[in-house]
Amino acid sequence: MIYKKSEKFPIGNITVSAEKGKITRIEITEEQYDSGDETAEKCLAELREYFNGERKSFSFSVEFKEGTIFQKKVWSCLLKIPYGETLSYGEVAAMAGCPGGARAVGNAVHNNPVMIVVPCHRVICSSGKAGGFASGTENKVFLLSLEKKNKNRFS
User: Catalytic residues, which ones?
Assistant: First the structure.
């Protein structure tokens, strides 16, 4: 059974989906959900701490229930990008064993089902510009700024 719980955050209404004790999706939605699941509750509590600048990593398990083998490989690479730092799409492509595959990485990043926790917002253009973000470029810039502002708290 999939449990969903929602909460308002600075970037919008975030809905967390949990199944069998693992987070399977984090997304911005219009709908509000409140299934009362312990895993979803823990995720939202840790997201509150993240947005308050009190957390840089998450303690719950994530499961990719969808996606191609390549997408899952890219999403796993994203988990290695440190808090407050960025990599280019090309750098992530090389990390995923696909040099020259920046566009394919962009597609995988766009389809990341577990935003923030799997930090797709930390992937930027080689020019240094933020680039696209499935939940809006302004939200990507907000998340990058939040991490940059709080990075030294965790040194």
Answer: 120
